[in-house]
Amino acid sequence: MEPWLTALNVGDFQAAWDLFAERYRRLMVATIKRLVPDHDDVMDVFSTVCQALSANDFARLKQYSDRSTQSASVATWLVAVVRNLTIDWLRQRDGRRRPSIPSNLSALQQQIYAAICLGGHSHVEAYEVIRARSGPEALRMADNGAQFDIVFSDVVMPGMTGLELADKLKKRRPLLPIILTTGYSEGIIAAGAREFPLVRKPYRMETLAGAVDKALATQRAH
After folding, report:
1. Which of 51, 112, 162, 191, CA to CA, is 20 to 30 A from 24?
2. Helix (H) or strand (E) holding 189
């Protein structure tokens, strides 16, 4: 459990807020900046967000803490909350005008911006995807310097299985998170034996996003 949640649960609200703000200030500001380009406006929105999060004896933080099972990490939940509060601030200032996608972004960046800032998706669901058509191609990309935050691979592939790919990538980059997917029972057993996280087919995007979030959190813990 995060320290701010521990403090909140014992009623030490000021300590909880101090710990929460220290840990997540940069994430909140970064989320606001995706919608608000002006520095002074960013600071105004940040102040509004802090007031909203601490209002009514930290009701929003309590609401997250009181959930018996959290389907999203604190960061994922917070991005959605800050985004909504930022849009509310913009609407109060400018009316109901819908934020537009900045024209100076690349086509891929515009898709990511639209997913996070306009579509309400979490940051986990909007990662830039680098696709490889086969296991050998993925290895070549890794050897040529491609930077992966995480790898998601089917177990059953022609030429090289996802398990073989995962084993080879682990030798190259021991800390690289790898998630496998399959609908075959043999693949499920094999993946479990190697202790790779597995998403069973068919799966929902929410399930995959949760698996990605968990794998990245585990990596950061190391």
Report:
1. 112
2. helix 185-193
